[in-house]
Amino acid sequence: MKIDHLIKEMQKDPEFAEEYQNQGEKLQTAVALYKARELAGLTQQELAERANTTQATIARIERGDNVSFDKLASIAHAMGKELSVNFN
Q1: In the chain, which stretches have pLDDT less than 70?
Q2: Rounded to two decimals, what is the model's pTM?
Q3: Which CATH number applies to 3-78?
């Protein structure tokens, strides 16, 4: 059974569907930060220093851990960017 088909079947369960969506949204944040950091040519440590945080915090966000909007905004500003949120 292909993973896409399995996921589609499992999403019929409302609890699974909600958790799958939540995890996907965290992953999107993680990937967005990683790409922005790489595009800026910064290491996790360099970005952490600019954002007045720790390298471990940057790593946790890039793994998909929860993070506050304030922290994300601070990191975005450290790269000369703005934090933007969309509801699709």
Answers
A1: 1, 3
A2: 0.76
A3: 1.10.260.40
